[in-house]
C-alpha cells in the first residue's frame, strides 16, 4: 500500500470512529455471538495459563539447560558438600562423621532428582504453555485487531456510499458505483478475516484438553520426583539406623544392656566391669561402700565420661564412693532391670517362701534369665560376696549390701520409685544370692 493511500485509509477510519461516537454513522459488530463466547473463553484460558505459568516458575529453584550450573545452585547440594567436608574433618572412626557421609550422599541424590524434575517441568509443562502465550494468543490478538480495522473500513465505505447515493446527480453516478465496489470488497475482507479468526479461536478452544494434559504432566512429574526421592531416602535410612545401632561409641547409661553387649562384643557391661575391677583393687576395705554416697558432681562426671568413651578410672582412686555410686546409678538407669520385668512376679513370689524352698524357687527363676542378664548378675554377685567377706572391716554385711543394691536390680514395669512395701522383699532376694553365691553361681570368681 502506498504511503498516500495508507494515510488516507487511517484518516477515513478516524472520521468513521468520530461519526459513530456522535451517532451519525452505523457501527457493525465485529464479532458474532458465537465469537464473543469463544473470545471470552480464550481470554480465560490465557489468564489461567499466565497465572499458572508464573506460579510454577516461582516453585522452581533454577532455570536453563545447564545441568551442572543448576545443580550447584541448589541448597540441598550445598548442604551435601558441607556434610562431606564435616565428615572428612571428623574422620571415618567417628559415628557422626560416618552419619554425615551417608546423609551427604542422600542430599546429593535428592539434588540430582530435583534438577531432573525441574528441567522436566520446564520442557514438558512450562515451554508448551509459554508457547501458547507467546505465539497462539498473539496470533489471535493480531487477527482480532485486523478484523476491527476491516470492519471499520467496511463501515466507512458504507457510510460514504450511502452519502454518495443521497447526493446523486447526473455527474456523480460513477463515484457511487466506485464506492459500492469498495464497500463490497471491504465486506468480503471482513467475512474472510472473521472466518480466519473463528478458525483460530475455535481451534484454540478445542485444544483445551491438550492444555489440561500439560498440567496433568506436572502432577505426573511431581509424583515421579517424590517417588524417586522417597526411594532414595528409604535406601539410606536403613544404612543410617544400622550405622548408629551398631556403633560401639554410644551412651551407656539408660541404654539397653543387650544392645551394649552386642555392639561392643562384650560379655560383661563395660560400666559394671570397670567399676568392679576398680573397687576390687582399692575399695574392698572402704567402710560403708555403696552405703555412703560419693560426690554428686564427681558421680555425674564419671557417668558422662563413660557415656563419652573417655574413662580414666585412676582419677577416682581417692574417691571410691563415686565409683560405687556410678555403678549403682548404671544399674538403676537400665531401661530394664538386671532381673528383668518378665520375671518380677516370679522373683517376688520366690522371695516370700522360707528356707530351702526359697533357695530352690530363687534358683528356678534365676535359671530362666536371658544369658546376658545371668552373666552380668553372676559377675556382680560374685563381687558383692567378696565384699561381704570383709564386713568386719568395711561394715558391709550381705544384709547391708542388699538393702542399698537390691532395689537397683529389680523393680516392676510400672514402678514409680522406691516403695517401702517391696523394698524389703527386693533386698532379701539379693541377700540370699550373696549368702549362697557359691550354690547359685558355682565355678570361678
Explain what this protein looks like in three dimensions.
- The chain is built from 18 helices and no strands.
- The protein is rod-shaped and about 150 Å long.
- The protein is mainly α.
What does this entry show, briefly?
With 445 residues, the protein is mainly α.
How many E-type strands? 0
Strand percent estimate: under 5%
Poorly predicted ranges: none
H/E element string?
HHHHHHHHHHHHHHHHHH
Query: What can be said about the biggest beta sheet?
Result: none
Question: For the CA atoms, what is the radius of gyration?
Answer: 46 Å
The number of distinct helices, counting runs of at least 4 residues, comes to 18
Mean pLDDT: 87
Helix-strand blueprint:
Layout: H1 3-21, H2 33-59, H3 67-73, H4 75-90, H5 95-166, H6 173-206, H7 208-246, H8 257-264, H9 270-282, H10 296-308, H11 320-333, H12 344-351, H13 355-366, H14 371-389, H15 391-394, H16 398-405, H17 420-435, H18 437-440
Helix pairs in contact: 1-5, 2-5, 2-6, 4-5, 5-6, 5-7, 9-11, 9-14, 10-11, 12-13, 12-17, 14-17, 16-17
